[in-house]
Design brief:
CATH architecture: 3-Layer(aba) Sandwich
Number of domains: 1
Shape: globular
Helix content: 25-40%
Number of strands: 9
Order of helices and strands: HEEEEHEEHEHEHEH
Structural class: alpha/beta
CATH topology: Rossmann fold
Strand order of the largest sheet: 5-8-7-6-9
Distance between the termini: 31 Å
CATH superfamily: Nucleoside phosphorylase domain
Radius of gyration: 18 Å
Number of helices: 6
CATH class: Alpha Beta
């Protein structure tokens, strides 16, 4: 794996020259428009990058964007990868390792999630303070490469507390409904049953989604600072659970995206 990471990093560096990003950004389902705020210097299609997995979802663009956002050099993944697409956990998190090798110190992650907390409504945002991992595999299983990180990485603070506090302050100042809570990572791709939603709430979850946790584990393994935020696109706490279509999820994410973009832009401006 280390050789593949080095080969991919070398290829990307040959295409972007001396550009060295400080911040990496992973844009979740329906949340790719943040790239419109980036002063783009270079774009690379995933399909043209050696060993880089390709998103199989038609609503994920599959581009690596290099540029400047609020004066900070960033690299953004416009389109992420999911375990349910058939990739291994190592493949899903490969881009995070490459971004670290390109120079990033901080990783920003966004996702679309379902609310488990009756106080968290559709269209709200939630800053992730912690997570519960219910996905069946871990990206750190197998031989550990000491050059990448320790065998047993600490997870006492997976999400940086001061960034959480700053994000909530930004949200409050801009009258954005934004909560702090626990993200539960599941496999998907099916949405949850009523009994599963209830179970996930009982064990301490505020929202549920099908991504984020593997990337965060690998980011912390490599010593990156992490901030993550969810756009709540549906509600799983009602006794009369309503069917949810993908089109509705994308529409809610699109409507809430400017609020998320504002918070991320102001956070990044502080770097």
């Amino acid at each position: 794996m280390l050789e593949n990471i080095q080969k991919t990093t070398a290829y990307i560096k040959s295409r972007i020259g001396d550009f060295e990003p400080e911040v990496g950004i992973i844009l979740g389902t329906g949340l790719g428009a943040l790239v419109n705020e980036i002063e783009v210097e270079k774009q690379l299609m995933y399909s043209n990058i050696p060993d880089f997995p390709i998103s199989t979802l038609e609503f994920h663009s599959g581009k690596l964007i290099f540029g400047t956002l609020n004066g900070v050099k960033v690299v953004a993944m416009q389109g992420r990868l999911h375990y349910y697409e058939g990739y291994s956990m190592q493949q899903i998190t490969f881009p995070v390792r490459v971004m670290k090798m390109l120079g990033i110190k901080t990783l920003f992650v966004s996702n679309a999630s379902g609310s488990l907390n009756p106080d968290f409504k559709k269209g709200d945002l939630m800053v992730i303070a912690d997570h519960i991992n219910l996905q069946p595999h871990n990206p750190l299983t197998g031989r550990n490469e000491e050059e990448l990180g320790p065998r047993f990485p600490d997870m006492s603070e997976p999400y940086k507390r001061d960034l959480i506090d700053k994000a909530l302050t930004i949200a409050k100042a801009n009258n954005i409904r934004c909560h702090k809570g626990v993200y539960v990572g599941v496999t998907g791709p099916n949405l949850e049953t009523k009994a599963e939603y209830k179970y996930l709430r009982i064990i301490g979850g505020d929202v549920v989604g099908m991504s984020t946790v593997p990337e965060v584990i690998v980011a912390r393994h490599m010593g990156l600072t992490v901030f993550a935020i969810s756009v709540l696109t549906d509600e799983g706490f009602s006794e009369q659970l309503q069917p949810v279509a993908l089109e509705e999820i994308l529409a809610v994410a699109h409507e809430a995206e400017p609020k998320m973009t504002l918070i991320l832009k102001e956070l990044i401006a502080g770097f």
